[in-house]
Amino acid sequence: MSVTLDDVDQWDAETLGEVFDRCQRIDNECVRLNDTLNDVGRLEGWGGESAVAASSSLNSVRIDVGELMVQATHIRRAVDIAQTEVQSVKRRLESARLEAAERSLLIAGDGHVSEDISNRPDMTGWTVRQIERYTDEKVLQIRALQAEVDSILQAANDADQDLAAAILGASGQINVAHSNRNQLERDAFHKAFNRDPVSETDWKTAAMLNTATYDPSSRGVPSEVVVARINPVPGQGIVKLGLFIPSRQVFNFPKDDFGDNRGFDSNFGPEDTRATVYLDYENGVVITRQNPSVQVDGQVGVDAPEAYTWQLPDGTVMVDYKATNAFAPPGAELADRVVRGKVILTPGEDGPDLYGNIGDYPSAEAYSERTGEPTRTILRDLADNTGPRGPLLELGSYHVVGERPEQFDQLYEDKAGPGSRAVVPHIRVDGTRSGSASDPPTTVIVD
User: How many CB atoms sit inside 10 A of residue 349's CB?
Assistant: First the structure.
């Protein structure tokens, strides 16, 4: 049975947190049990047949405990996906209803869009041409909003399926590891690391590597990712830098593009940005992802992003990224009308810090996530122009964010500018260009 908008109104994303917490408690208990089993297995002075039998029994229990830990991780991941989707659907529905109110339209519980006759203006004295113009405009408004509501309902059905998988998985009725999305994520991770994801960090990285798209507006066009290896720095977790368009629709030529239609969100998912720079210090990779661009007439396209990386011996990583709209007008790159920036991420006691030079457009947000700790915000930078003409007015201008790290001089050296005595910083060595996720290049180490 299809989900209705009335069903969406009854969804409560917060209650999913209870399932997530339950899985976290299971995982914590499994870790403690596994440690206890290891301690028992190390008892001194215990030998003979009884010790051999006990060891065999303990190994069997360890396998069961390990499988339970993996299943709990799968369920947490499924719940996380469902929460993100539910929140996104409810946010989009709220926006659609606000637009309907502004345009004197009605959205029924089954998703049907119509004119709010009670708010129709008094047409006394109008000419036939004025009435026709009003009617034609209203038809276009209804058609556009209907397309958005249909897209919301499709997203709601997808979210409902993922939500059902999470709930059934939590109750033990299905193994959520067998769901299609989880399988694609597992395959993407295995392709990059030659092993299956196990930890929560592994699964977050797997989701970023999975290029399949689930937003109906993308029409199945996959995202593009490029990857580079770095030396891991255990304990520093992951950093995700998201670049997103806050408005629902933005100027482009000859047709406008859809934006991400959201504000800052520390839980943003792989598809909630135009581009994402994702650094996994635990597994030692930098992933740069670009999502499909969607035009108002439904056309979908995506270009591969570009990224260059550098690393210092202490684990500091610099990423030079660029993302070009697949529907950018001719000459956009020559005119520097692209999304680009250069950021330096420096490991620290409280997690990585960020410094860099980023564009005035679009909005940017970066978060540090470490196992067992709350998410730490390290950047929230609102686009200089959040309106529909933001890309036209702001692309190509830049500003500095964060505090310059002490390691800056290890990446740059002072040189005279061409034909001038002015001293300007130049990168000491060429960076490593990110490549295929199945065979990523290793980032150059700057001594």
Answer: 5
Within 10 A of 239 (CB to CB), how many other CB atoms are there?
A: 28
| 167 within 8 A of 179, measured Cβ to Cβ | no
3-state class of 364 per DSSP? strand
Q: Which residue has the higher pLDDT, 318 or 55?
A: 318
In this predicted structure, what is the pLDDT of residue 229? Answer: 97
Asked if 100 and 136 touch (Cβ cutoff 8 Å), the reply is no
Q: How far apart are CA 157 and CA 151, in angstroms?
A: 10
Backbone angles phi, psi at 412, to 5 degrees: -120, 155
Question: Which residues are within 8 A (CB) of 200 and not within 5 positions of it... i.e. 6 or more apart?
Answer: 73, 76, 77, 371
Contacts of residue 164, defined as CB under 8 A and 6 or more positions apart, other chains included, come to none
67-81 pLDDT, tens digit each: 555 556 656 666 666
Q: pLDDT digits over 105-135, tens only?
A: 999 988 899 999 998 998 889 999 999 999 9
Element (H, E) at 368: strand 363-369
CA 391, 393, 240, 344 torsion: positive or negative? positive
Cα–Cα dist 358/396, whole Å: 10
Contact indicator for 153, 5 with CB cutoff of 8 Å? yes
Tokens read off for 103: 């345009």
Burial of 80 per CB tally in 10 Å (0-12, 13-18, 19+)? buried
Q: Is 327 helix (H, G, I), strand (E, B) or coil?
A: coil
